[in-house]
Amino acid sequence: MNKLDKTLFFSVLAILFIGLLILYSASTRYYSQNIVFRQACWILIGVILLFIILRIDYQRFISVSYLLYGINIFLLILVLFFGEARGGARRWISLGAFNLQPSELAKITLVLALSLYIGRRKRDVTKIGFLFGAFFLVLPAFFLILIEPDLGGALLLIPITLTMLFMAGAKIKHLVAIVLLGLSSLPFFWQFLKDYQKERLFVFINPNIDPLGSGYTVIQSKIAIGSGGLLGKGWLSGTQNQLNFLPERHTDFIFSVVGEEWGFLGALILIFLYLLIVYRGIKIIETTPDEYGRLIATGFITLFSLQVIINIGMTIGFLPIVGLTLPLISYGGSSLIVTLIYIGFLLNIGMRRPLF
């Protein structure tokens, strides 16, 4: 067994520390200071779970992955009937001091279930029926998350699946055909989108069509990031942040606080730390001979990379707002703990690959 990947591990710790500083600034005036303490508690829980994951061979999780995925599907059904509603969405199951978000857990259980499905049928990976089987496995989680509604969380499952299939050796022409089929169905699905989801897409094209409504957040986000300049205005000194012009700055739009208070240089340092994690994850994929380990690592690195890219992209106006958090930074227990769990899987796989 190899030693712990220190570069990956300490990059994660550095981002967690930066996240607490940013969250404190984002909440110091208009949000309860209790959220920083709660975030610190969730970090502690997540790190403990990470080390528990490290002590168990990841292949043991593969053998029960269908069971874990089935339990997750049950929780996704449960949340639709008994979940806590916020802002028109029903995504959380209240557990007292902690609200469980089953759609976040689905990111882990789906990757594990897909790894088992693909690994057992590796010889059939070039067959179109095999691909349909993989997407049939994804569909229950996809639609249950979609109707919460959580469009961003549901759509995130598709590129994860495609990347894992590509890594397993699926034919590119088959994957491209699936993508084109999905794109061709967009006009059909448009009629099922909620009004606020349609407004977000219109605002992405032109934020100024509703500058005081749907376009307000992204406009304020771009102002905040742009005003930070090279070195930023200083910690606790961002005007858009401290004067409460920027909504959701402690969750989905927390990168805007980084840009305003820490400037281009601070944002670059944070992005560099994210790139270190992705780089180490790719090295783990390249040096892991076990097919299941490679598939799991591929799924989790794809998930991590996409969430970082999409979150930063939507805060600077390059992508539509889809409600995805910034990994290891944004406030939220389920998202943070789930991220630390799959980081634990990456470290686990890296520790158990042979030395070359």
Structure overview:
The protein has 356 residues and is mainly alpha-helical. The protein has one domain (6-185, 210-352). Helix content is 69%, strand content 4%. The chain has a three-stranded antiparallel β-sheet, with helices on one face. Strand 1 (84-86) and strand 2 form a beta hairpin. The longest helix is centred in the last third of the chain and has 34 residues, at 254-287. The protein is globular. The model has no long low-confidence stretch (mean pLDDT 88).
Question: Could you provide a short overview of the structure?
Answer:
The chain is mainly alpha-helical.
Domain tally = 1
Report the C-alpha radius of gyration, rounded. Answer: 20 Å
Biggest sheet: strands, sense, closure? 3 strands, antiparallel
Helix content: 55-70%
What is the global morphology?
A: globular
- Tell me the number of strands: 3
Secondary structure class reads mainly alpha
Approximately how much beta-strand content do the residues carry? under 5%
Taking the alpha carbons of the first and last residues, their distance comes to 12 Å
Side-by-side strand order of the widest sheet: 1-2-3
Mean pLDDT: 88
Helices, by number, come to 15
**Uncertain runs:** none
Q: How do the SSEs run, as a string of H and E?
A: HHHHEEEHHHHHHHHHHH
